[in-house]
Amino acid sequence: MDRQPRVDRASEYEFATICANAGVHPQKVSEDETGWDYLVEFPPDPNFAPADAQPAGRSAYAQIKSTIGRYHRTSITLSNARRMAQQGHPWFIVLFYRLPSGERRIYARHFWIELISESLKAVRAADLANEKLHKKTLTISFEDSDDHTGDLIRWIEETIAKAGVDYQRQKLNAFHSVGYEDGHGSIKFSFQSDNADEFAKALLGIGEVKIQNFEMTPKRFGMADQRGHLMASTATLQSSPATWKDCVIKIRARGEDDAISIPGKVAYTSFPRGYARFTSEFLEIVWSTDDNAVQFNSKITIEQRRSLAALVTHVRLLARVTSSDTDIQIWIEGRRAFGGRGEKARDPRRWNQLHPLLSFLHSLVADDISVSIAEIAAASAELRRFREIVAYGVSCTLEFTDVEGVPLGGERLLYSAQVTVGPATFFAIVERPVLREDQNGEQRHFELGDPRIVDSYAVSGAAVDEQFQADFEREINQSSRTLGIADIRPAFEGREIRIYTSPGLDRADGSVE
Length: 513
Description:
Helices cover 26% and strands 35% of the residues. The protein is α+β, with helices and mostly antiparallel strands. The protein has a 7-stranded antiparallel β-sheet. Strands 21, 22, 23, 24, 25, 26 and 28 form a 7-stranded mixed β-sheet that branches. The chain has a 5-stranded mixed β-sheet with strand order 1-2-3-5-6, covered by helices on one side.
């Protein structure tokens, strides 16, 4: 008797056998109404340590298909395709392909981004046509690269592992996002022509604007759904740019050669007016490309603590745009996209005086200390004195009245100074050469050369004085023919100080004035 082979049942049995031979557990569905034939469970690693932290083994749903003929393809109902797409678990479609000769190959596809998109697009079309999903099918084709005759179970496990620990999040994110690449719908509305500038800025995410005769129709995969059509006589429009491009903005003051270059993002619109919006870590620029009007908006308040690196660039920029007209260019992918002139901004604050102080502090520290502009301004007088003591190459002469407490023959003077700005104390050890040493009666004069910063840093917290003292003593003990003053600030005020000496130079234990 000539009987037809039951290839579908044979394929299911063979799949279970393949799973068993691979050491995994195939759980057969009792009622074939859920879209899957087997739940494949992979045992966890038995050697994982510690045992109490062993993660659960992986699992995957598999729908088994079979075919005889020329083509490597099968079909699934749209209701099952939607279920595969909307669930966070791994799903695989396995096709047992048999030739009339009896040869068989096994093809498999992971129900991932491509199939999720194809399925939901077909579901959308069927739904809009008011067709029953369980009566419509989606054709699944297989390529030669989908042939897993010899490695089916290993490939399934490796494919799940390749997606990472957040497999479910990635899949559900795809389920909710595919088909919206060109937006979630189309809208129609009207606006008053005298609000054109406000409307253009609103498209860039700046402010909001009143609109009239608003209509919206949802879309997915480019297919509109009139069932979700919305209408309103008036509405308030708030939006944000769909596309931001990496860019560099270059700002050069009139008459200066060097430009300030700031990396950031840029978005622009030409409807109904031309505007570009540049945004960076601490600055935003709104540029009217129609008339070259430029508006600078700081993202840093004077009370907000930010890194010294950010404040230096920020204040330098403010000093530049408030002192003269500027040339402004925005470069995208190595090409200048926008260019124009910015008028001198009106700001009564003296940014050009604050910038040198910030730059100096930033030069002292390797770590990025955070302070505020208000804290810098509050300490500006002491900062200027600190900078003069530590870094300025101005002439400096020390005069001592207690000459017996100061050894002769010193070739250099080592001293330290400190200043507190907000939460941080900045410390510097400075060396100056002794250019000339004179004694007149009970007075001795030292003319000192330009300063050289030996060490500098910034710290916060308690017990900083002990650290400063220890660092100073370490430096002078490593020097030769050197006089030292642990904290030189009292000397500039005419107060008593202690003189330290390096090894080999007679040490004075007393204090001098």
